[in-house]
Each structure stands twice: as structure tokens, then as C-alpha cells.
Specification:
Length: 162
């Protein structure tokens, strides 16, 4: 994955298509909004229930808090899917398999809660929503999204579930 702005743009697209692929694998019919709806990149329907999803991608094991808040809505059928695309190994050749993206599935309310906790701690100016042990040896105050890794089951819960 590239670095800088181009790498981040690619990470956003990886997040979008990784989330769509996983939703499809789980029986959802997925629609892409072409990024023209605020806080909604995908809609997904299964068993008569429609959910909205905001995807956030990163080439680093963290997301800026303000981006997480932009995606968070406290409505029961809204979700935020964070996708971390690890860099290829330093000695990777063209034939090496790239690391799989890691997905973290949060209810919109969880995204808002984590953001509020980050602001309460005064950490909002930093790269403060992290994957697991990324900052474990630095500052344990940073909120983590590790508990939400591969929590695709959360998408099958909530109001409107038939």
C-alpha cells in the first residue's frame, strides 16, 4: 500500500470493498452509495432489514477520532466498519501474498461512545482510536477497537430484525 495521500485514498477504497465483500458473503444484498451520502458508504439488506454502513480505511493501525465521530450515528441500524490494511512485508516480492485487511465492526453508538471517551480524556488531537496493543507500551488511556475485530455478528442484531 502506498504512503501519503495516495496510500490513504487506496486504503479508503480497500475498506469499502472489503466491507462489501464480507457483507455479501454473509447474505446481505449490498449497495454502494458512490460516497454521495453523508456518513453512509454502503447500504445492506438481509431478511427485510436494511442497515447503513460508513467505512473508514487506514494504512496505519489507528484512526483519527474526528473521522470516527463523522461516521458514528446513534441510530440502531447504522454501523461503522474500520478497516486496517497492513503494509506488505519489507522483503515482499511480487509473488508474495499481501496481509489481509483487518476489519472492526462497530455499532454507530459504539463509535460515538469511543469518540466521547477520547474527547473526555483530552486525546482528540492525536491518532487516538487504535488497534489493540499498538500503543500498549505507550499510553494505556487510548481507546481501542480491538474488541470489535471481526464482529460481523453485530450486523444481525437490532431493531428491524425479522
Amino acid at each position: 500500500m502506498g504512503t501519503g495521500q495516495r496510500g490513504q485514498e487506496l486504503a479508503e477504497w480497500v475498506a469499502l470493498y472489503h466491507a462489501a465483500r464480507e457483507l455479501s458473503r454473509r447474505g446481505f444484498v449490498v449497495g454502494h452509495t458512490l460516497r454521495n451520502m453523508p456518513m453512509v458508504d454502503l447500504t445492506a439488506t438481509k431478511d427485510g432489514r436494511t442497515i447503513t454502513i460508513d467505512t473508514k480505511g487506514s494504512t496505519q493501525p489507528h484512526w483519527m477520532t474526528q473521522n470516527l465521530l463523522k461516521g458514528g450515528r446513534e441510530t440502531p441500524n447504522h454501523f461503522v466498519i474500520l478497516v486496517y490494511t497492513p503494509p506488505p512485508p519489507r522483503n515482499a516480492s511480487g509473488n508474495d501474498r499481501l496481509p489481509e485487511p483487518r476489519a472492526f465492526v462497530l455499532r454507530g453508538a459504539d463509535a460515538v461512545r469511543i469518540t466521547k471517551e477520547t474527547v473526555r480524556l483530552g486525546l482528540e488531537r492525536w491518532k487516538s482510536v487504535v488497534v489493540g496493543a499498538y500503543l500498549a507500551n505507550k499510553d494505556p488511556r487510548y481507546p481501542t477497537v480491538s474488541e470489535f475485530e471481526d464482529r460481523w455478528d453485530l450486523l444481525d442484531t437490532g431493531p428491524g430484525k425479522t
